[in-house]
Design a protein that fits this description.
The chain has 13 helices and 19 strands. Helix 7 runs parallel beside helix 8 and helix 12 packs parallel to helix 13. It folds into four domains: about 130 residues, Methylthiotransferase, N-terminal domain (Rossmann fold), CATH 3.40.50.12160; about 120 residues, Transcription Regulator spoIIAA; about 90 residues, Transcription Regulator spoIIAA; about 60 residues, Nucleic acid-binding proteins (OB fold (Dihydrolipoamide Acetyltransferase, E2P), Beta Barrel), CATH 2.40.50.140. The protein starts with a strand and ends with a strand. About 40% of the residues are buried.
Length: about 450
């Protein structure tokens, strides 16, 4: 029983966690398989931020439970990650056939738990009880390290590094502080060593990951020459000669101090892109969300970033239909969207998360109103994205060649310094290289181009 299929739901943090779990399992002698039908073990790494993601994972687990009941000693089913942490043993009321329920601070224990369970099953005694491990563990943030096959560093052009775990912000709509715990940061030198290994194995872009990535080290490590630990880390990575680009997600507006704004001016590997979640343009709703900034302070930050980097591209997160959101509140969000002219965005319809303060707030907004507001913002997003893309047609952009395009053959997918997708004809030997591409056409979602000599 050594063939494992690992399916991931949710964000880039979850993808990174799954990558590290897979590396640990390979080191232990397990074989990772793409097809769940070929697996002896199926693990679902789950998300608890949105109800839809939870329901998808529960539905998949229910289907797999049927297979478990047919062959209980030859098939193992486990749920790991945020939904496991949030729901805990209550999952067994809905899914009694689960073998494993493992929380967010115990990913590195998955191989041990699997070994234990397989040994118990092969002993031919009574079916072992479901193994539930949800306890906090000091230092768990330092365990998400492995990349790629056999635990070696990733060979992909773009790689992710988890630099911290947890969140202390306690936004009223968000379950993350419950599922991920308080902020815990990794040592700066450890992160740099991991980046060096990745770059030595072919990575040319690194994305730093954290629940509030701009909070990195603010309680553990000192300021140096007026610079926060997060900016110190970016500067250390910027000095790696074969690393072309540095990105990070997900930040918080309160983390953009003067040193980080200046970094966009002084450190070219940061490029001209920033993700800046706003959530709402209404000060009243921002207070209800427990977001510690105002509409005006947010827009001043946008102006400061554009002053530091005039070619900046912005993406954001917005929640429509937060409890109590009136037409006037939504109009304030729409007006802010127009003023900031976001070219990219993740626009969410408010989703009730049991256990958050917002779940019990009065004046939940009717679904049809939420849907209409969501559509209106999507139209604005398409408008500004298309307008900015059209400005690029006829220009030559520096593009990092990231991967072969899915179709047609002979084309590559890359991204501009503003993080926009570009498709162009080029040989795969150029993967990982910075190439000049003349933009020939544009859609809302992507650009088409021709490589220049």
């Amino acid at each position: 029983m050594n063939r494992v299929h690992l399916k991931t739901y949710g964000c880039q943090m979850n993808e990174r966690d799954s990558e590290a779990v897979a590396a640990l399992l390979r080191q232990r002698g397990y074989t990772m398989v793409e097809n769940e039908d070929q697996a002896d073990v199926v693990l679902l790494n789950t998300c608890a931020v949105r109800d839809l993601a939870e329901q998808k994972a529960i539905g998949k687990a229910a289907l797999l439970s049927r297979r478990k009941r047919r062959d209980p000693r030859q098939f193992i089913l486990g749920i790991i990650g945020c939904m496991a942490q949030n729901r805990g043993v209550d999952l067994l009321d809905r899914l009694p056939d689960l073998d494993l329920v493992i929380g967010t601070q115990k990913f590195h224990r998955v191989p041990d738990h699997l070994d234990h369970l397989i040994t118990a099953l092969q002993a031919q005694g009574p079916r072992p009880a479901t193994l539930v491990d949800l306890d906090a563990e000091e230092g768990s943030q330092n365990e998400i390290r492995g990349h790629g096959d056999n635990g070696n560093a990733a060979r992909e052009v773009s790689a992710f590094i988890s630099i911290m775990q947890g969140c202390n912000m306690h936004c009223t709509f968000c379950i993350v502080p419950k599922t991920r715990g308080a902020e815990r940061s990794r040592p700066l030198d450890d992160i740099v060593r991991e980046a060096e290994e990745l770059v030595a194995n072919g990575a040319r872009e690194i994305t730093l990951l954290g629940q509030i990535v701009t909070s990195y080290g603010r309680r553990e490590f000192p300021m140096v020459n007026g610079k926060t630990p997060f900016v110190q880390l970016i500067e250390r990575l910027h000095a790696l000669p074969d690393l072309h680009r540095i990105r990070f997600t997900s930040p918080h507006p309160s983390g953009f101090k003067s040193d980080l704004i200046a970094a966009y001016r002084d450190l070219p590997k940061l490029g001209e892109y920033v993700h800046l979640p706003v959530q709402s343009g209404s000060d009243r709703i921002l207070r209800a969300m427990n977001r510690p900034y105002t509409r005006d302070s947010y827009l001043r930050l946008v102006d400061q970033l554009r002053a530091a980097q005039p070619r900046m591209w912005f993406s954001t997160d917005i929640i429509v239909g937060f409890p109590g959101e009136t037409d006037e509140d939504f109009a304030a969000t729409r007006d802010l969207f127009n003023e900031a002219a976001f070219e990219m965005g993740y626009l969410f319809k408010y989703s009730t998360r049991t256990g958050t303060p917002a779940a019990t707030m009065p004046e939940q907004v009717p679904a049809e109103i939420v849907e209409a507001r969501h559509r209106e913002l999507l139209m604005l997003l398409e408008k500004y994205s298309m307008a900015r893309h059209r400005e690029l047609v006829g220009t030559t952009q520096e593009v990092l060649a990231e991967a072969p395009a899915k179709r047609p053959p002979g084309r590559l997918l890359g991204r501009t310094r503003g993080y926009r997708k570009v498709f162009f004809d080029a040989p795969e030997s150029l993967l990982g290289e910075l190439v000049n591409v003349r933009i020939t056409s544009a859609t809302v979602a992507a650009l088409q181009g021709e490589m220049q000599n």
